[in-house]
Each structure stands twice: as C-alpha cells, then as structure tokens.
Amino acid sequence: MLIRPTVTYALETWVLKENVINKRKTFERKIMRKIFGFMRTDDDYWRIDTNREINDILNGQYMIGFIKKQRLNWLGRVERMAEDNNVQRIKRWKPMYKGPIGRTKDEVLVVIKNMNISNWMKVAQNTDIWKTVDELVRTLYRLWCFVRRRRRMSCSAL
Questions:
Q1: Its pTM surpasses 0.70
Q2: Where are the domains of the chain?
Q3: Is the CA virtual torsion 74, 79, 81, 86 positive or negative?
C-alpha cells in the first residue's frame, strides 16, 4: 500500500500526543472510506462504512501501531551504531537547560522501563533478541488496550 509509507515519512521523530493520535486515526479511516467506497444495504440503500466496520477491515493494523513499531525498531538500530557515530553523540548529548513544563517523555523508553529491561542498550545490540522484545512489548500493549477497552477507556494502538 503506497499510502502508509508516504504518510509516515520520518515518523521516528514525531511526538505522539493524544490529539495527534486522534487526527491520524481520523485520517486513516477517511482514506479507508475512500478506498472501499459505499456499501449497499439489504434494502438497496447506499451508505458509508461505520468506524467499527473500518476497524474490522483494518484488523488491528493501525497507522499509529505501525509508527510505534518503527520507532522501537529505530531505537534498536541507533543502539547498534558505532560509538563514534554522530547519531550516538546526539543521543548522549545532555542540554544545559530543561525543556518547557508539560513536555512528553519518550514513549518507547517509558514502555521499556515499565517492562523492567534494565540493560536494554545491550539487548538492542542483538537483532534477534531485540525483535523478541519488540514482539513482547506489542503483545503486552495489546493486552493492556483490551483491558482498557473493556473498561471503556481510550488507548492508542502499538
């Protein structure tokens, strides 16, 4: 599908706040409605697909989940880079001032810390183990989202 790579270009640098997530989900459903077109009902009326029907079509493969997965993969690639690489230098750089109040934390690092992976930088050096960690993070996040949906709370896909 050509839409996903175009829309998610340079996604590793995006800050995913709740309003951005909602806008991306709305955009994705709008595009899917245009792709699948109208639906004919039993009594010969035409109507557009509902959000629930579009979610069933997507089968959990949302753009936001793709973005979060790519960010996790990107973090693993950065950790495997040589120490003298410019990206590694920028990652280690500590600014001399604090950012503005209310700034969001890096979501990927928060998820990793919540999973109690203390030596995640060493784990990221091995691609096979990092893929296992990636799958585990996404599985636990889906379980957490399932519980939140049962309680009628919002959650973004990973």
A1: no
A2: 30-59, 61-95+104-158
A3: positive
